[in-house]
Amino acid sequence: FLEYLIHHIVTLYLMIFSWAAYEHRVGSYVLIIHDAVDIFLCLSKMAHYIKVRDLVMFPTFISFVVSYAFFRMFCLPVLSYELLTVTRFEHSNFASSMLGFILAFVLQALHVFWFYLILRVIYKMFVVGVNEDVRSDEDEDEPSAMVKEKKEDAAEAASINAKKDALSRKNSNSPSRHVRSEEH
Q1: Is 123's pLDDT higher than 80?
Q2: How many beta carbons lie within 10 A of that of residue 94, not counting itself?
Q3: Residues 78-100: pLDDT tens digits?
Q4: pLDDT at residue 176, rounded to an integer
Q5: pLDDT band for position 101 (50/70/90)?
Q6: What is the per-residue burial (b if ≥16 Cβ within 10 Å, else e) of 101-123?
Q7: Which residues of 149-181 are buried (b: 16+ CB within 10 A; e: fewer)?
Q8: Cα 11 to Cα 17, 20, 30, 105, 136, distances in angstroms
Q9: Among 39, 32, 37, which residue's Cα sits nearest to residue 114?
């Protein structure tokens, strides 16, 4: 969660920087880098969640990996290079160029970390033979996590009801503690 939060904050600041520094090309480039990859990521996740792994998930996942490698591992460093060299010489504003470079560098560090995780998934798929989303075990919004939680809640409710039933049967079978006394 923390990585996603940092990613979105840095991306937002990079967009604000590009607008404030009149570097709209940088902001457009950041949007293209992220949106092009997100299309294949969403398609791959949908295929995983609706269990059409053989026909749809494999091609969309491969498309996601290739687009991620190109856009986020190649194009973003090119953007960083442009921020250090071309932008600085065009507008001679070293501070804004360095701010943009630092934000792009943080973004690139996160992308490298996530690419490592993607490579682990590929390794597990092809070498180990495990075809699952390792991220999903921690995802609270995943349907299987919700089903598991509902089953646990149902089991707990059934246990409580069974205890109540046993207690009520025990109380109905035991002799009455209150004996009427007749004083007439």
Answers
A1: yes
A2: 11
A3: 877 776 776 555 555 667 777 87
A4: 52
A5: confident
A6: bbbbebbbebbeebeeebeebee
A7: eeeeeeeeeeeeeeeeeeeeeeeeeeeeeeeee
A8: 10, 14, 8, 11, 24
A9: 37
CB atoms within 10 A of CB 38: 14
With contact defined as beta carbons under 8 Å apart, do 143 and 97 qualify? no
Residue 141 phi/psi, 5° resolution? -90, -5
Q: CB count, 10 Å around CB of 61?
A: 24
Band the pLDDT of 148: cuts 50, 70, 90: low
pTM for this predicted structure? 0.61
Element housing 141 (H / E): none
CA dihedral 32, 36, 37, 39 (to 10 degrees): 140
118 phi and psi, to 5 degrees? -65, -45
DSSP helix/strand/coil, 25: helix
Total Cβ atoms within 10 A of residue 147: 10
DSSP labels, 65-125: HHHIIIIIIIIHHHHHHHHHTHHHHHH--HHHHHHHHHHHHHHHHHHHHHHHHHHHHHHII
